[in-house]
Design goal:
alpha/beta; eight-stranded parallel barrel; 18 helices; globular; 2 domains; three-stranded antiparallel beta sheet; binds zinc ion; binds 3-methyl-2-oxobutanoic acid; Double Stranded RNA Binding Domain; TIM Barrel
Length: about 500
Amino acid sequence: MEKVKFFDTTLRDGEQAAGGMLNIQEKLDVAKQLEKLGVDVIEAGFPISSPGDFTAVQSIAEEVRGTIICGLARANSKDIDKAWEALKKAENPRIHVFLSASDIHMLHQLKKSREQILEMSRDMVAEAKKYIEDIEFSPMDASRANSEFIYQVLESVIDAGAMTINIPDTVGYAIPDEFGRLIAGILSNVKNIEKAVVSVHCHDDLGLAVANSLEAIKQGARQVECTINGIGERAGNASLEEIVMALETRRDLFNLATGINTKQIYKTSRMVSDLTGFAVQPNKAIVGTNAFRHQSGIHQDGVIKMPITYEIIDPKKVGVPASSLVMGKLSGRHAFQERLAELGYSLSEDDFIRTFTAFKELADKKKDITDRDIESLVAEEMRTITETFHLDRIQVTCGDRGIPTAAVKLKSPNGKTMADAALGTGPVDAVYKAINRLVMVPNKLTEFSVKSVTEGIDAIGEVLIRIESEGITYTGRGADTDIIVASAKAYINALNRLLALKKVTG
Ligand code: KIV
Ligand code: ZN
């Protein structure tokens, strides 16, 4: 069976989404998970865009094997050199060169003629080709460009050595039928097209990214560019899990294979959501919390009799944990380890010990511990690994009389503890002010939200915050059965990210 390649750009276009910044270790963790998921290409970043991006691409290139590792470059020598420098230790490196090709972009942004764009595209693909064979080229804003011009550009970059030509619907403007015709037109009008793989890259501004990608596949595209949970610039990119499951579920129609291990979808989705702080909407196809929940009595009746009546995908197929109530106070180390393995985690001994200790502490406060609680515990423990400051303890007094007061003790980078106290308009404000007195990093809180991981009064509360400093947004998350403690953890998490980036960029 013919195969569709999956080019995942979660770490480049996905991370480009406002407020979605990941640190180097987090990018590496996501890349390793993407490899387990079975994507064909990981676009690890845009090396020239920042020192952090450069280092992230470099570490992924060094550590992730078995998948093509790609770096993005504009059509100029500096970008290409930088991309190569970051990628050179990869087992299978790819440079992705892009240049706008629509009249709108050429006229208003680049101020270049079609002839100049044609020449730059060809020359820069040839330049990248000096480093490696595997070059991809994207004529940006192709869906709003003149198709005859796109054919010309593609023919000339394929001649210069591009092995993949990627057609972006950069602003999410295309309609499926129209986008399909563009792909069909490319396949029948570009003379040397058989020498390249045709790829598509769709944005979701009209909610059509997945539909456009599927239509392109129907017309002959054999690589799709997408992101986990559909995150990305503005309304996002085409969602990987939706395309994969459409191809799997409707194999009768597409008759195409993928290299994706669908059982890893749910875990990858949770990981990306946890690390970026972008919550997955409950009704999101494939990975939303309601995606496999049946509310209506008629549907429930049907599913009990035979799941296929109302369920087109077996949730197990995408790795949604089968059970909900699993563990409690009496569950031992071995049972916990087994449950972690069933959920797809393989932790180092140290990480396991820390997570197991946290599990035991939680079990003292909460009777039934669900898979979602365990996922939240693992995420919480992983968050503390790269800490500069660690929350040692907090104490808060609040209520409708008196002034909210918080005392905070932190462990500093040199292992010493430091403590301070502050008053605030509420308990969280008091905690944040006390932390500010200790950490002393100017920033502005731009977002704060609390949600419970599971139902019930004893549920773990997860706090997500975003802070802004020098024009950069940092996300922080924290989880605890006490939401004030979770809020403090989230703030420390965001500050640690801010400090880590400062260390990298100086
Ligand atoms: O949306 C877009 O056009 C892009 C290109 C860099 C491929 O992200
Ligand atoms: Zn894009």
